[in-house]
Amino acid sequence: MHELSLAQAILETAQAQAASHGAARVLAIRLRIGELSAVVDEALSFSFGIVAQGTAADGADVQIEHVPWTIRCQECGVGYRVQEGMPVCPDCHATGGETLTGRELQIVEMDIE
Ligand SMILES: [Zn+2]
């Protein structure tokens, strides 16, 4: 049900944005979603289609841009993309560090009219 509550939140933001711009319809919504947010694209698109029925965003195209999980190594400070969910530094082989990207869950832009 993760995607359903997320779809609801996106819809509310989209409606507020459309209203503040005096737009009648939301045509498309572009999202940036990090690898760590564990969102299933199909489930999100499907959920959005359901919650948006009868609203200004009914039938809006949901486009999802994925952001990989990247980390800054706590030992040597190099930034790297985490492979297969294992945060192991490719340079010094230390594990863990500060997450740089991968937690994104945001609306990048919307097409409204
Ligand atoms: Zn390192």
- SS strand fraction: 25-35%
Oligomer kind: single chain
**What low-confidence regions span 5 or more consecutive residues with pLDDT below 50?**
none
Numbering strands along the chain, what is their spatial order in the largest sheet? 2-1-6
Mean pLDDT: 95
- The best one-word shape is elongated
What is the CA-CA span between the terminal residues?
30 Å
Structural class: alpha+beta
Listing every helix as H and every strand as E from the N terminus to the C terminus, the arrangement reads HEHEEEEE
Number of helices: 2
The counted number of beta strands is 6
**Largest sheet geometry:** 3 strands, mixed
Which small-molecule species are bound to the chains here?
zinc ion
Write down the CATH topology of the domain at 2-68 and 102-112. hypothetical protein PF0899 fold
Question: What integer value in Å does the Rg equal?
Answer: 17 Å
Can you describe this structure?
The chain is α+β, with helices and mostly antiparallel strands. The chain has a domain at 2-68 and 102-112: hypothetical protein PF0899 fold (2-Layer Sandwich). The chain has two helices and six strands, in the order H-E-H-E-E-E-E-E. It has a three-stranded mixed beta sheet with strand order 2-1-6. The protein has a three-stranded antiparallel beta sheet with strand order 4-3-5, with no helix packed on it. The two termini are 30 Å apart. Bound molecules: zinc ion (ZN).
Entry summary:
The protein is of the alpha+beta class and 113 residues long.
